[in-house]
Design brief:
Shape: elongated
Pfam families: FAD_binding_2
Cofactor: FAD
CATH class of the largest domain: Alpha Beta
Keywords: FAD, Flavoprotein, Oxidoreductase
Number of domains: 2
Bound molecules: flavin-adenine dinucleotide
CATH architecture of the largest domain: 3-Layer(bba) Sandwich
Radius of gyration: 23 Å
Protein name: FAD-binding protein
CATH topology of the largest domain: FAD/NAD(P)-binding domain
Order of helices and strands: EHEEHHEEHEEEEHEHEHEHEHHEHHEEEH
CATH superfamily of the largest domain: FAD/NAD(P)-binding domain
Organism: Brevundimonas albigilva
Length: 444
Amino acid sequence: MDDLSIECDLLVVGGGMAGMSAAAWAAERGAVVIVVEKAAATGGSAVLSGGVLWTASSAEKMRRYGAGDPALGQVVFDTYPDAVAWLRRCGVGMSLRMDVLHGQGYQIDIHGWIQHCQSLVEQHGGSVILETETLELIRDGTGAVTGARTRHEDGDVTVHAKATVLATGGFQASSELRARYIHPNARDMLLRSNPVSDGAGLRLGAEAGGEVAGTNRGFYGHLVSEPNRWDDERLFVALSQYHSEHALLLNEAGERFCDETLGDHTNTYETLVQSGSRALCVWDARVHEAYATVPVVSIGVPLDKMQTAIENGGKGVVAETVEAIGEFAQRQGFDGPAVQAAIETFNRTLREGWETLSPPRTEDWRPIDKAPFYALVVHPAITFTFGGLTIDAGGHVLTPQGARVPGLFAAGADAGGAYGHGYAGGLALAMTFGITAARSAGWA
Ligand SMILES: Cc1cc2nc3c(=O)[nH]c(=O)nc-3n(C[C@H](O)[C@H](O)[C@H](O)COP(=O)(O)OP(=O)(O)OC[C@H]3O[C@@H](n4cnc5c(N)ncnc54)[C@H](O)[C@@H]3O)c2cc1C
């Protein structure tokens, strides 16, 4: 018996932030859209997130802190106002403006947004099909992508579409791909995202002729304390040590290895590549009061990060002297005397010649010298990957020769290159490229 076959204007593979935004944008402009989602529900990492839709506050900051392909970063920056205007027009709940890292944003009702997108798709004759695997993209004689063969428990369905958007959320859930594209140490990295995004979009796109650029090793993530369980997604935020950018990070040899002040997300990559893929995060009473007990965005819930870490299996200590921090470090398998010396040297250098500090700090040159002292063993955890399918500024998937794969687009974390070792918003990246892909596919 032949497979069931359906037709639509736009096929979207993956029903998270990028996919649902692309689908709804096209549907609002009259497209019949089919979204195929592998999980039992839509939303992906977006509905696990804090819902803060933010990006760099200037094009210059986007280039500096996004640190990816400038043309793609510019698309995020330029399309962000359209995204916000659309959310407002749709009546989605939004907070007042807030500061986030080197940018600005709003907390949005992310569950409400995903539901609203689904309603728009359905109102315009499309549907969202859950628990559906995409086996392969189909192509016509010219090489253009014309849909996909999908598998649902009720049987296989071929979806014929004028355009297809890949939006499966990146490859962070595949230990093998993490090891191949990020770093060998990344194979065992903690996963701080939905568990479904294992690189299917990259595979499908590459099979259809698209390029997966293997040179972007970047990812977004955070340093987390050692968890005694990792099955409750609320721990993703509760155990994240956002304040590492005001602290000191020391490796097992007791050495500083990065400019901590560039951001906890940057510190996460730097820690991954250290011996043992871990670090000792050291801070003092000043940092504790100002940053380790205060939510990272104004709408967050205040938590004592050390106390929360220890309650959930973290290896940490609060001590009156730097010497005691060294002794704790030694018990955790770090070079204790070197740790003590590194803290003392750091403080002395900041008092006597901050300009000689190596590695340097871009911000926060205050010593870590107000007792009590805090030390916590931290590990990298990945939220989404920056490398992916090569796209142009219209979201078209490109071949290794730089030509467009006709009919094929990528958005969100499936699209590589907008960020390098930096970061200027995950939801914004997904939503702006969702809109961009839908526009390029003909629904401007
Ligand atoms: C704890 C946490 C907090 C965060 N906080 C923020 C924040 O406040 N601000 C911010 O900007 N970003 C935040 N993020 C990041 C943000 O959620 C992501 O960057 C964003 O959701 C990525 O969008 P996406 O569409 O690429 O992926 P997702 O939103 O993850 O969507 C991908 C979808 O594809 C589906 N899928 C996977 N494989 C397949 C397949 N083979 N076939 C079909 N479907 C498939 C997945 O199930 C999922 O539904 C946070 C993330 C987490 C986990």
